[in-house]
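Entry for the shared binder. Reason: the reviewer on the internal report wants the predicted structure included alongside the sequence.
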Amino acid sequence: MSKTATLNLRVSESLKVRLGQYAERTHRTQSAVTERAMTAFLDQEMEMLEAVDRSMEDFREGKTVSHEDAMARIRATIERHRPR
């Protein structure tokens, strides 16, 4: 089992109520629900930050496309995935 630490934070009363309701309905502790939510949030945010870092590196190396080319690629991708 991994080590745990205590974290104190302030949240709105309405968020605290919702957390309690969710924990009760899912038969989990508020701590377990909070850890799961924070892990998912941080995983997503860190992935986004890493993508920004990669993009900035590409920019510094001159690996760019024009706005027009980027939009054409986006439109083509949307078109490929459009339901028929």
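Summary line for the report: Residues 13-81 form one domain.
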